[in-house]
Amino acid sequence: MRAAGVRVIRAAAALVALAGLAHTLWSGVAEPGVALAFAVLITVGELARRHPGPAPRAGGGGEPAGPPPARDRHPAPLGSAGALAYALLGQNGGHSTHHGALQTVTVVVAAALVGIVPHVARGRGPALDHVARRVLTVAFAAVCFQPLYNSGRLEEWIGQGPYLVGFLLFLLGLTALCDAVLAAALAAARTGWPYGPVLRDELRAQLGIGSAICASGVVMALGAAVAGLWALPVFSVPLLLTQMSFRRITAVRTTYRQTITSLARATEIAGYTPPGHARRVAALSRSVGRELGLSERELTVLEYAALMHDIGQLSLVDPVPSGATAELPAAEARRIAELGGEVARRTGVPAEVAVIVERQADPYRDQPVAARIVRAVNAYDDLAGGARHPGGSLAALERLRLGTGHDYEPGVVESLARVLARGGRSRVVSVPPG
After folding, report:
1. Helix/strand/coil for 57
2. What sign results for the dihedral spanned by CA atoms 422, 424, 427, 430?
3. Residue 14's CB: how many other CB atoms inside 10 A?
4. In whole angstroms, what is the distance from residue 62 CA to residue 131 CA?
5. Angle at the Cα of 257 from the Cα atoms of 251 and 259, rounded to 5 degrees
6. DSSP per residue over 242-300, as a string?
7. What is the distance between the terminal CA atoms of the chain, rounded to a whole angstrom?
8. In which band, very low, low, confident or very high, does the pLDDT at 75 lie, cut at 50, 70 and 90?
9. For 323-365, what is each residue's pLDDT tens digit?
10. Residue 421, Cβ neighbours under 10 Å: how many?
11. Can you list the alpha helix ranges (DSSP code H) found in 153-230?
């Protein structure tokens, strides 16, 4: 069903693009100069798209451990804003335009394809999902605006004053919602994550860079309507600078995460924990957190805490056998967790990460949600890994269910069970040593 949904979205985008191309070839290009100007803007935006590189994975083929917004959402904000501006363009320097919705789609698709050619040549081309989203989102905005404007009904209803700005903002809100729905559907189909939490993440993301893109699209369209095409480079500069700043922030976050991952491996290198344990716990914790509807920021904090959850074992004189803290006495497990929280604070991680680490051994009713997740997932990996539990994964999960009276929150355990039922264990357990 999920694969069928992706195929439907891609097929719809292809049909819209072909219809636009056929219409433009048949009737010719209206206002070629305007079309060329916006095509150049969109192409520049695609050429400037960011490529943070392949996302680190927590396991062989498992869920990407890095946060999706930094990787997938709006990699070319300038191109997206330019496409929306062309879809909402009604005038150029005080003169009405007549390019229509189908020509809008054609210009956007042609410019995007030209802009991604250099990236494809370097082996860093964007996924088809991004192109399909761009086509359908722009088509939605253009179909809602261009026929109303070209027929004169929009001016008759609301005029050219502030009501027009309000209408454009309302339309872009609907467009952003459309984009979020498409992005969530594609992400859920690609990853197997529940649709509801993914959609909430996409809607939250629209409040950030998505709002900047929509606002820039409106400003470009209104600026070109009054000042002509010279308004495009003027209003493009702030978004281009924002894109460059965001690229630097993404690089810093990537480096920060790599540092935490390297620090978490210290327990493996020292022989305190089995190879890949921290990464398995981090990947499975993210899946459980996503199942429970945590925001992207909360998932990132959860991942950092899960990576560092065993760091307190470095303070022990005698290692815990096989690094399995789940079967230790409560007092000893709590002491190791408190040592881990102290070590985490000294590494400079956010205070909330250290709190999760030091409280993972508390009774679950006294823990924050992230600590409950880390505790349950860590116990599962300890019990199911190797030969520590002869019954394997199912018996380990049943052991967690028996401990829901005091040690593990029932909701977290059941979310873990749903993730495992979808194949989460098989995706995150096969981590090569080192």
Report:
1. strand
2. negative
3. 15
4. 25
5. 105
6. HHHHHHHHHHHHHHHHHHHHHHHTHHHHTTSS-TTHHHHHHHHHHHHHHHTT--HHHHH
7. 36
8. low
9. 667 667 778 888 888 888 888 888 778 888 888 988 888 888 8
10. 10
11. 153-158, 162-191, 195-205, 211-227
